[in-house]
Amino acid sequence: MTREAIDFLRKVELFDGLDEEDLVQITRLLRERNYKKNDIIFFEEDTGRYMYFVKEGRVKVSRLLPNGKEMILAFHESGEYFGEMALIDGGTSPASVTAVGPTTIYVLNAKDFAALLERPGTNGVILRTLCQRCREAWSQIEVLTFHNADARIRMAFYNLAQKSGVRKDSGIEIPMKLTHKEISDIVGISRETATRVLNHLQNQDLIKVETRRFVIRDPDRLLDELLFG
User: Fold this and answer.
1) pTM for this predicted structure
2) Which of 78, 124, 188, 229 is the most buried (most CB within 10 A)?
3) DSSP secondary structure string, the chain?
């Protein structure tokens, strides 16, 4: 592994506080894999064999619903990781993971992951990650409790702003580039309906698009209008 891999690990919360020697040892355990757009990294119901760290690119976590429609549960970008849940309990994967675009991933096998868990502090980070996954799942459930498409998209954007929003002069920017199709798959509606709702929210000056990223003018206002509008 190169210096590039060590520098990457320094950005991953799981390895926070490790010294140079520890990071060098971990890089020796990692294997690099490259994926093209729409490549499947693993399928739902696959038995967990690896933990995955996104070096470059973006992946989506999704499930196929009984009606054949895809439901996007989450995205993971550079510095984030996934696959730890199946390694911890030995179960199958609860969702499929697909490369959104060209993506480079480091993988760690189950045996080396078990050894990693023995390091001081690592268990705490993993527990925090699992708690975050649970909160994200509850947020997704909250979105789906609304029958109205407008309400679903408002709540979804509010949750994205709370989770990963970056404050700018014009509002809270969602740092990832989301297509109308991806938004529709997150909230469980058709692409055409998502486009109509997004245009309506832009006309109301609740959201806008800057450099292909959505900016939420005021997340609280978005939620206020959802609850009281």
Assistant:
1) 0.76
2) 188
3) --HHHHHHHTTSGGGTT--HHHHHHHHTT-EEEEE-TT-EEE-TTPBP-EEEEEEESEEEEEEE-TTS-EEEEEEEETT-EE-HHHHHH--B-SSEEEESSSEEEEEEEHHHHHHHTTSTTHHHHHHHHHHHHHHHHHHHHHHHT--SHHHHHHHHHHHHHHHH-EEETTEEE--S---HHHHHHHHTS-HHHHHHHHHHHHHTTSEEEETTEEEES-HHHHHHHHHH-
